[in-house]
Amino acid sequence: MPMEVELHLNLTAALAAAFAAFVLGGIWYGPLFGKRWQGYIGLSDEDLASKGHPAVIMGLAFILTLMQAIILSAIVPAESTVEIAVIYALVIGVSFVATAFGVNYLFSRHPKALFGIDAGFNILQFALMGAIIGAFG
After folding, report:
1. Running DSSP on this structure, what letter comes out for residue 110?
2. Helices (H), the chain
3. Mind telling me which residue stretches traverse the membrane in this protein (predicted)?
């Protein structure tokens, strides 16, 4: 018996979720963990200022975050509660994103603390996006 999958897409919720996640990223990789993150990946303030155009980097980062939010919006069932949407988001953030970081960081020999910063952000980012998408239900 074929299985039917119905995707529900809420672009307004996805846009709001992407914006909120982008703000969270600014706080996470700014005042909260910015200097530690820079140290772990070996980027100086001068490197950040001179390598890549900040507007291009921010613009592309927002587009990628929006793509994540759109896909999450499509996966979360219509009429989900905030709690159900957050569960969907956490499954993605923990099971797919954080584990993918983990595998990459094991082979690249990055510090465990860097994994904590990057994976922690992505888990929290997905939970936030899920909460917003669920609130738009």
Report:
1. -
2. 11-27, 34-41, 45-50, 54-75, 82-90, 99-108, 112-136
3. 12-34, 55-78, 84-107, 119-136
